Amino acid sequence: MAEGRLPVVVDALGGDHAPAAVVAGARRAVDELGIPVVLVGPPELVGDTAGLELWPCSEVVAMDEDPGRAIRTKKDSSLVRAAEAVRDGRAAAMVSAGNTGATMAAALLRMGRIRGVARPAICTPIPRPGQAPRLLLDAGANAECSPVMLLQFAQMGAALAAVRYGLEDPAVGLLSIGEEPSKGSPLVKEAHGLLAGRSDLRFLGNVEGRDLLGGQSAADVVVTDGFTGNVVLKALEGALRFLSGAVLEAFGADEEAKAAAGVLLPRLAPLVAELDPDNTGGAVLLGVRGVCVISHGSSSDQAILSAIRVAADAADRQLVQRIGQLVAGDQGAEELADALREGPAPLAGR
Amino acid sequence: MAEGRLPVVVDALGGDHAPAAVVAGARRAVDELGIPVVLVGPPELVGDTAGLELWPCSEVVAMDEDPGRAIRTKKDSSLVRAAEAVRDGRAAAMVSAGNTGATMAAALLRMGRIRGVARPAICTPIPRPGQAPRLLLDAGANAECSPVMLLQFAQMGAALAAVRYGLEDPAVGLLSIGEEPSKGSPLVKEAHGLLAGRSDLRFLGNVEGRDLLGGQSAADVVVTDGFTGNVVLKALEGALRFLSGAVLEAFGADEEAKAAAGVLLPRLAPLVAELDPDNTGGAVLLGVRGVCVISHGSSSDQAILSAIRVAADAADRQLVQRIGQLVAGDQGAEELADALREGPAPLAGR
């Protein structure tokens, strides 16, 4: 471990390809990026750590376990231990490709919320070939949202865009069903009013579904409630998987097709690489008092490597402090009080 | 016009390629399918009708006009006249590729709602290669929905699946952020309870975003609120457009790529044809007392032809009567009263 620099702690048992892909990705992060990494997990399940330090624990949260109950009962699980390490200043950030709800719950319950933040949100990068990815939040932490929460999502997303892609004045869009401020649900119309009144955000107004993947929108950050965000992200993932499968089937239909595919696949490779979620670095849980990166369940070693890079960057560039300044610094007291009265996020059962 | 059979009335000025594509598509419906068709529009704007009958009117609703105001003020517009022709029994169904909100408003205000239906919904087919398309509703008529509305959307979608694809017992899914009944917004959880209690619907439970295009779900009909439905449909459309553009660019990168593309494109043609919205026949406005098909704004003559076929089929197979039986027949009186107390749909400004 590099002297003086805190490690990124990685849940060795998180994800469908754990521990092998996780250990391999962690090893690559050390070797290729020089980022100090520590694994956490039950030694007998992790096995060979490829020379990396392992912080032992005795429990694991399964992918399909109820998140709230898992975190309440499994106090010596890799997820809880990872979140505690960040809280206690022994790690700079945590990474898991495991149970998303349980990762959120561990981070929220162990690290707590940033002062002034009503609810944490999951921020997911959507590939935007030739440019930095577009950030969508909330991607599923909060099935129900208030207008103030959407405003805070905009602030938190802008902070991540700055930290992660160097976009110091990112353009923010509000996901709706038409560009005019009069279009959308009551939630969206109220949020539009809050966002339009901010001098500290470059608010573009409403954007539409077609502006998420492709499209002409200049939005670097797109805010929406966690229900819509989760549905639309999964729809795009499903469509990409379906289409790439159908195209590859046609490419392998017969010998003539295979020969032609041999010519075209290298020309499609840059597009495929840009769309590959393994390269974008996973989702970031924003609003908790620590850096928590959630990689997708089928993460490869490349995905873990990308997630560790994002986690280390976010910690180095003080993501948490920046969010604290943006959100707590100038939040209208009344709005904030309203938001906080709603109580903590009902994470269990998501 | 075939003797005794009511024509489909087509808005000659609706859509980006009107009137040429509309007239051409209408002509093809007569010639290729034997469906009687009448155009409606201002004669001086329609020009050559290719020998089709034209019902003259004096006004046109522009694509970007405010729907509510347009329908209130332009009483001699092609949209209003088309809806009146269906109401008055002079036409079997109407088709427009024009302003979606104005088409909805014209149909709702002139035809009225089917007895018992709380709100009309837009039902859009999503291609499902090798099978009948999956029907998604609401695709944008109602930005805010109640649980009873989602139940009625399921009933109306099931009626359309039967009429349009011969699926007499279609499987219905509820769009949410996880398969368990405990997942989702309060709206979705309540709707889940209503749907699960029905013996007249084959309810599969929750489905997710990834089950819309591709995916393993058996759902023939997917219900959601009009905000989520609109966002996710536009996201899928945008992604398809972006991906096909990017693939075609790679295919045309150089001479070698073009030659290989010449081999592969014919093998991709069946997939492209199945995904082409021009072949699926447009969206159907369900819940009004008449058949109204809304084709997309960039409709080609093929799209208009498909929309006319769907409109004629729905009228022949008594879609409106079937919805009336399903919805009004056994609706819980209390729920219905609750739904109706919400008043008419605020169509203006959508």
TrEMBL record, chains A, B:
It is found in: Cytoplasm. Keywords: Acyltransferase, Cytoplasm, Lipid biosynthesis, Lipid metabolism, Phospholipid biosynthesis, Phospholipid metabolism, Transferase. Pathway: Lipid metabolism; phospholipid metabolism. It comes from the Bacteria. InterPro entries: FA_synthesis (IPR003664), Phospholipid_synth_PlsX-like (IPR012281). The keyword Acyltransferase applies. Its EC number is 2.3.1.274. Signal peptide: none annotated. GO terms for molecular function: phosphate:acyl-[acyl carrier protein] acyltransferase activity. Homodimer. Probably interacts with PlsY. This is Phosphate acyltransferase. It comes from Aciditerrimonas ferrireducens. The lineage of its organism: Bacteria, Bacillati, Actinomycetota, Acidimicrobiia, Acidimicrobiales. The gene is plsX.
